[in-house]
Amino acid sequence: MHAMQYEITLPADYDMGVIRHRVESKGHLLDDFPGLGLKAFLIRERDVNGSPVNQYAPFYLWNTTEGMNSFLWGPGFRGIVDDFGRPVVLNWTVLAYEEGGAAATVPRAAVRRRQRIAEPTPLPEFADELAHEAARLSRTEGAVSVLTAIDPRTWEAVHFSLWDHVSPEAEGEVFEVLHVSAPEREKLPRGRHW
């Protein structure tokens, strides 16, 4: 399972209604995309929930590498590149995924926290801690889903969670969820992934 995100930071005076309309008119196109566990169409607006920027930053959770590659080399991502330029695509291998108690509800907010893994950190113990943290957070009221993942190129962990309310209990950058495409969410394996 792979987690993926790209961030398109927009000018401070950008009309975020343009992004809202884009998601409203095109978001459904991924509602049955093969290999996609879920895609959360996310935005941050300057001066809302502590955000310093306007940003479109969709987050993907892929069941298959083939699905991820089909998206990146297909018309969906090409549309992003044509409209905004080619963004850096962050990619993490998932360590743990959990459904929360509010899994049946439509998420309204997402939280992402990125964490550098210091050089002397013992990796097996740290991975266990990350999996336990995901499980703990998934039991928090309002949690829709929670994952933790690592980029072994940069040794960065990402904690990502979806919530049924606007003021989630998790620490990190808060995003508004505009739409969720989840064609293979029920296939996402739960628990730790090693």
Structural write-up:
- This protein is α+β, with helices and mostly antiparallel strands.
- The chain has a single domain (2-192), classed as Alpha-Beta Plaits.
- The chain is 23% helix and 37% strand.
- The chain contains four helices and eleven strands.
- Strands 1-5-3-10-7-9-8-6 form an eight-stranded antiparallel β-barrel.
- A hairpin with a 4-residue loop joins strand 8 and strand 9.
- The longest helix is centred in the C-terminal third of the chain and has 16 residues, at 123-138.
Summarize the structure.
The protein is α+β, with helices and mostly antiparallel strands and 194 residues long. It is 23% helix and 37% strand.
Q: Give the class-level CATH name.
A: Alpha Beta
Instruction: Give the structural class.
Output: alpha+beta
**Amino- and carboxy-terminal Cα gap:** 11 Å
Shape: globular
Number of structurally distinct domains:
1
- Largest sheet report: 8 strands, antiparallel, barrel
What is the strand content? 35-45%
Round the mean pLDDT to the nearest integer and report it: 96
| Low-confidence runs of at least 5 consecutive residues | none
Count of DSSP strands:
11
